[in-house]
Amino acid sequence: MISKILSENLYINSYGGLVERFHFSFGDYVDAENGQFGVLTALNEFVLDPGAGFSMHAHHEIEIISYCLHGELTHIDNMGNRNVIRQGDIQYLSAGTGISHSELNKSKGESLHFYQIWIKPNKPRLAPTYKHRSIPAQAHMNHMLKIASGERNTGVIRVAQDVNIYIAELKQGKDIAFSNPGTRQCYFLCLEGSVRVNEQFLEQRDALKVFGDTRLDISAQTDSHLLLIEMAARRVEAAQGKELYGKPGAFHT
Questions:
Q1: Which comes out higher in pLDDT, residue 137 or 113?
Q2: CATH code for the domain in which residue 122 is found
């Protein structure tokens, strides 16, 4: 099953040199009908003017993956990490028992455009952790590149949850496909450009919720930038109270 989310229906707010769009209920945006999607608790887009940003603030019991589309994000935290996240870079922050950080656009003339993915960890009171990885532009050109995963020995940023996060940049006319098993679900977002997915046409910021046995045939209508977050479709076995998981989906080129 596929459900389309139009960009025009996203929550949008603008203040103090910041434009933010939320895909799910978050902060000032309260919507009981649009809460978290599996373990994906938030997917937020931010555009910051030069000099704008978020001063030091605290998080706990959440994992945050930041992906920079354009500009430079300056990160400072109370663990002593000071980094600049640039176009194509990934930042991972496991807040665990508690962490404070700031996120600023220190540029004097360039805006900053980035996304944040919030994941609920699989257990509480994890030790706070910070990771930063730069990805060469060609690494995700014309195919989906896994950037974060709960799987062991994948060579990517490890998260404390049964989830896989992919990015891709597709040239116009390029086709790829993704098979979603019945025990999994995924959230597919067109970050930039436009694509056709099966019978659905997606432009910038349009998204799909995908459930059950579904093949996504993805065709780039223009040069496009894509994000896919794939996770277990959780169900609980009543007799034993166990969460059951299935194997993750697969891409085809």
A1: 113
A2: 2.60.120.10
